[in-house]
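#lab-general

N.A. 3:47 PM
ok so I finally got the sequence cleaned up, no stray characters, all 526 residues accounted for. can someone with queue access submit it? mine expired

B.Y. 3:52 PM
send it over

N.A. 3:53 PM
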Amino acid sequence: MTPFPLAAPERRTLRQALACATIAGLAAILLLALSGWFLTGAAIAGASGAAAAAAFNYLIPSAAIRGLAILRTAGRYGERLLSHQAALTAMADLRGALFGKLAAQDSRTAPDLAGGDASARLIGDIEALEDLVVRRPSRPASLAAALFAVALVALAGWQAALALALLLAALPPLLTLAARRLTTGPAADAAEALGALRTAFVDYAAARPEIIAYGLAPRVADTIADLSRPLDRARAALARGDGIVAGLLAGYGTLAAALVFALAEGPAPIRALALLAAAASVEAMAAFARTALRQASVEQGLARLATLAELPGDRAPPPPIEAAARPIGLDGRTLPPGARVAITGASGTGKTRFIEALAGLRAPVHALTLDGTPVDRCTADALRRQFALAPQDSVLIAGSIADNLRVARPGIVDSEMRAALHIACLDATVAAMPAGLDTPVAEAGGTLSGGERKRLSLARALLARRPWLLLDEPSEGLDAATEAELVRRLGQWLDATGTGLVLVSHRRAPLALAKERIAIAALAHQ
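B.Y. 4:20 PM
back already:
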């Protein structure tokens, strides 16, 4: 049972997988046991002379063995197909739910979770949980196969059957104890090292232009190699644990077969049947060994996923709908809906933080209110409904240009996208691309220039249709002619829509959009 409950369709699929696993387990036990009986019986018949050999029925056991082999293969195939189907479906739903929880968090109070660490949890840790779901049908099927083996061994006497039953009963706790001793530490080390490695990869990927420009690739490669070594050591230790447990299982199977053979009674074919049934029963219990070996990794994954599952909220809120404009309060002064103001000041004085505080991305340090309510008391959803942000560092998703624009709100059509791109002076550039709006945009903007990424982010903010537009250095990276045209078109759009504007820019041209300038140094702090 996983701590993340499965939906009814996945539970039904797992029950079908359990049926297949049980069929495969029983067929495997009977196949090996029948083979032992058949080979021994055939050998005795052959050694007894022509008459005995002719009287021995080879056809029915041979057909039964072939049928059992086919049944075993079909059962195993069905188990793997159905268990993986259930696991993949369940984990896809779980990933979506956990990502929704992350997306629903208020940036001002959410836990500090690096992108690489979040990726490790949503990918690697969920894969560990997926492994638990995949193996779920195998344990009860193994028990059924083991009981069936004990029943077959009972044909050779109750003493042999009792000895096998005791050995099989002792095997799961023995495997669990051995696996915990061998894998608990390495599994924790592997989870921690993988999170650190993913975080480093994400950070270095974001800085790849600087890494290339300054010739830092060898140093970064050495850092990645240093971060990889703990992961390699942990995985090597886990592999050694696998090998030791596999050896333990092989030795245990030999012991069980030898003990059953020593205690077995009856004719040689029955004793051979009991011998191979005992060996097969230990092999069937390998599912417990695999589960025990993976348990430490699964527990580490579950512990890391629990921090996401315990976040408040079940999913991200629906995209904000158009809301009535609310006034902004700045240190006692009021900006009514539709006001257009520029926040000025030297670099490093907190202008970007001011903008991000209004957008709900950071805690405010200035006396800011929305409709009389301090911004830090406003919910993230309330702020999202009022403000559309085109940040200084444009954040784009891996997808197409259209995908990045559709993030703004649901129901956006191509004509609206083209209109927003026109205002952002990017329509001609996109139209010249072979795929147009469907042009792929790789992670972090891919091959788009800095100015193109800024304008795409601006077009997305325009499409959001919020009462207030927050712009942080909107014309950075543009030539003078493009900047002037952007300011002209954006001014016309602001006049036509009545959208309010809060602007930060070190360039002179965009400041013409504002009707008032406020020095950030003049604003009081909380």
